[in-house]
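Next up, sample data:
>
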Amino acid sequence: MSENLSNIVLIGMPGSGKSTVGVILAKMTSHDFVDTDVLIQTLAGRSLQDIVDMESHLALRRIEEDVLLGLNCRNHVIATGGSAVYSHAAMMHLKSNGLMVFLDVDLSTLESRVIDFDTRGLAKRPDQSFADLLHERFPLYTKYADVTVACSKLTQEEVCAKIIKALRGRGLI
């Protein structure tokens, strides 16, 4: 990849496969891997759900934004939390040295993968359904994405192959 664009940043809904695809993609591209949800939990010393329960979904979004803005790495695959797209500043920071890849997964597939919707530590309003959350976030994912991969019917390896093809097509690997 070029010196100025060294990271591959995965964005998408909970259940889209960012963490799983991220690990595989990192191995396939000789990058390191970072999961920003894990960073948040490590820095906060508690789970995402604890942050939502004790403070609020907006507190989780603020903490996430701080973590993302403080992230300075090169040659990484970065799996963001699904709510990262709420912070324009964080998205611009990540895009400044990375290619933003939206893992687009349809609602029924997401719902089949995310069985712990109410206890997963999602930065959502208490009254918000999964469909509402997808409807709210989808325009943000497409706004920030450099590449969109329709993942619903693909294996994780097929998703990685599509991302690598897009990187090659842009002369980034």
Summary: The chain has a mean pLDDT of 90.
